[in-house]
Design goal:
mainly alpha, homotetramer, about 0% strand
Chain lengths: ~260, ~260, ~260, ~260
């Protein structure tokens, strides 16, 4: 789960009214076409679509995802979050202004002090113990995605790092929006209902909008226009690695089903 | 000021009884001789003593430090703290366990969310405005010390980084202890009373003890014994840069006095 | 191919006598059990064996590897080498002595000025054009392995980096030794003869021995004994990523064969 | 000395005709006003002038520099070169194209394999032994300048690193040009003749022109226009640190003279 689930789960009860028989009215759009992010997303084309509308996501919405797939995903997502916290710590080092250092510090704290305990708690509901999760080897896809982001952030500057991180936060929001629009999505008797609720809630959507606006501001300061080809290459690579992360979970379900 | 001032100033009123006509009983020693830190401190010899018992420190205790020296120091300490926050963010990236990531995140938050606002507030009492401070160029000594720590932390591992950071936190505690023992130190009518109180208070001393114990644990995990010559070189270099930082402030006072 | 193929191919003609009807006498062992490397290799157990005796390697020796598998491998190995050069450049930054900086500089130059031109030339013999190779997207396995090594090297110190790099250089040497001992290996009419010759030649074997000895020296200086659990985790992760790299190539052959 | 002295000293004898009674015709200008560098130099204003026309430089040209100042400078320049080599190795890691990796590798090799041996040899002529130099502690100015460059390069991207490095290479070339134009400069009976000859020779001037052109190309690719305020801050900071490096040497001469 992503660095906002905390807020989402915290307010879940307030959002209870949005789920059930009918879908919520979406008042505020996600700004998916806005600024630098919008341009990157458009130019990532089918790579982006293959990620946000992945079979794994659609099956989550329909409640048909094999439990083994979801459990595999949850464990790898736990391992992912540790590296994700390190990536935000890295953003704090890369920052040159106190405002950017503070923003990065807040993100790290949100991940390690709020989101990870919540994730651990959520996993416990699936009989996944933290001691076991931390001892599980990273899947190839987890290593590839997290180390790609960290290394790009180290080799490049803060903008390179944030572009590498962008598909994660925003993509989960768009996946939620796709589920909202999919007539086959259901929440009643859906074991993944809590997950869907989290990523379609207004608090999460607010985080997505905020990150899109922040990336555009950073892009302007850091010369994104002139650097666009390299930034797009980073964005597409990260998007493909996100897609591979879903596929990893999907295959875990297939193996069980076929076995 | 250092990443604990927050706790210190918060509890200042509780410590009020320790100042005034007589000095506090020091129940718990600072553990200055303990473990890896103790060995580094002993082997740094006169470099260490020149730093912790610097004329700047002694003059603070006696209340004789020229105001220009202290004000120069406060501004450069503000600029130092920005880089110090980045160094702790870097420790979060360098960490490999969730516990170490959390510890680093807590340090960064303590610096940017608590200590820096307090420092800015304290500086305002000396008519130093944050907008002016952030626009002040770094002194050579500020650049040298902060970039040395950051670069050592990037080139080496977490232990290298923490050894480079150690003289700062512990040294201020030992300077406080030296002032406690100096019969010429006075708190009444001393314009620097608040600063002295902070670094001789039990909360700060607890931080010092904790960091000394943590460094020893990290040293054991990371093979400090075998790496000792390199670690000592780092420690001595950082100690000399701390001494140069005090000397920078001291000279600012001399210039004014002589001018 | 690895950072020694240059020397190997240069001296190929001198080694001509070793190939053909009978295998060479191996006078000097590879030192696979020596020092820190030997301990890591033993403790990596089946992970190590699965890598060095991978089906891809055995099929190379027998000349039965599908050409598509080898060609896929060659392209990804080209992309790997670019990142491999960056990893050695990183070692130059991480070094603290002039001798270690020089050694890293020599490795980078060997890769970019000698080995890559040779690799490009060798690929041309397989009708693989450099312009096409540089435009080929990295496979997931290539990204995972290279970024893992780079990121470990950045987060840790020079020893962490060199342990992450060790499976590559030494493993290819041991794979060569396994082919020498495999009665099914043949060089006559083997399209991969040149590759096998390279990694079983004395110049390559000398490089392997040298790197094993150097790692042990670095380990002693950097406290490998106390850091062993973390180092072993790095070594095993890198070994598994190397195995995944071979599997990637192997699957490329299966796809073609089955298709 | 800087990463080109090698070429310069190699061709010294060919340039012999340019020194002596009259100054050489300068056919090709240094391109000091060209592109991104030209803009940074203009905007650095008096900081730049204070560096390139430093008293240390002018006294070198006149042969009046105290020997103690020059010897102190030579030792610190040796220590500087070790870090300078690491900075160029870092550029190799930061590079994303094979061409940029190759350029960085060539720079590192030029420094450690050619320039440092020449510098050591030149120092031996001043009775400065390498064993003693490597054991000499870095001056505050050496630490400040080198770690500032390395840290900026790590926190930012390749352009940030190259902007931080630019004052060094180009500044020495402009200092040479200032000496050429200064009627008080003399080569006959000037103990620093070899140093002056090196930095006013055509091979060094070619390096300066080349680096100015390369920086402009990199700036265009990396969005220098939008990032200009931050780049200028880096350039000015590095320029002031270079000036401080000369001042360090100058003071070493004053101490001796006054002592």
């Amino acid at each position: 789960m992503r660095d906002d689930l905390s807020a989402v789960i915290d307010t879940e009860h307030d959002n209870e009214s949005i789920v059930g028989e009918h879908w919520p009215m979406i008042d505020k759009p996600l700004l998916l076409d806005h600024g630098l992010f919008g341009r990157l997303r458009r130019d990532a084309g089918t790579h982006w679509k293959s990620y946000v509308a992945h079979d794994f996501v659609l099956a989550l919405g329909r409640g048909t995802l094999p439990e083994a797939a979801f459990r595999h995903f949850l464990v790898q997502d736990y391992l992912f979050l540790i590296q994700f916290a390190r990536a935000h710590a890295l953003a704090g080092f890369k920052a040159t202004t106190l405002a950017d250092i503070r923003a990065a510090a807040a993100s790290v704290s949100a991940i390690v002090d709020v989101e990870m305990p919540l994730h651990v708690n959520y996993c416990a509901g699936w009989n996944l113990d933290e001691v076991d999760m931390v001892a599980t080897p990273e899947a190839l896809e987890t290593t590839a995605y997290t180390r790609f982001v960290l290394e790009r952030g180290l080799a490049g500057d803060l903008l390179d790092l944030q572009v590498a991180l962008a598909p994660c936060l925003v993509g989960y929001g768009e996946s939620g929006e796709i589920l909202l629009a999919d007539p086959k999505t259901r929440l009643d008797d859906n074991p993944y209902r809590e997950w869907i609720t989290a990523y379609t809630s207004e608090p999460y959507r607010a985080l997505v909008r905020n990150s899109i606006i922040t990336l555009d501001r950073l892009g302007t300061e850091c010369g994104a226009e002139a650097r666009y080809p390299q930034l797009l290459a980073t964005f597409i690579a990260a998007t493909k690695l996100e897609e591979a992360f879903w596929s990893m979970g999907w295959r875990a379900g297939q193996v069980t089903r076929d076995g």
